[in-house]
Design brief:
Keywords: Signal. It contains 3 helices and no strands. The chain has 75 residues and is mostly helical. It has one domain. The longest helix has 22 residues. The protein is elongated, with a radius of gyration of 27 Å.
């Protein structure tokens, strides 16, 4: 097969891949969100007795804070 034909097939394949990627690209549409249960945009969370008696662990909060800071000045 000639080099020009191979190059043309490669260009056509690249165009097809780009076209399929652009068709498959999905971005959220601008629309108003509504709840089906009639409670509005943000339904009230269910009250659970297990959630009320839990205590916050300070070590866990420190871990979450340190993970959110990243590596900072380290290269």
């Amino acid at each position: 097969m000639k080099l020009e034909i191979t190059r043309a097939f490669a260009v056509c394949a690249a165009v097809v891949v780009c076209a399929l990627a652009s068709v498959a690209w999905s971005e959220p549409a601008l629309k108003v969100l509504t709840a089906e249960n009639g409670l509005g945009y943000c339904p009230v969370p269910a009250q659970d007795l297990r959630l009320e008696d839990q205590q916050v662990n300070e070590d866990f909060l420190l871990l979450m804070f340190s993970l959110s800071q990243g590596r900072g000045g380290l290269s």
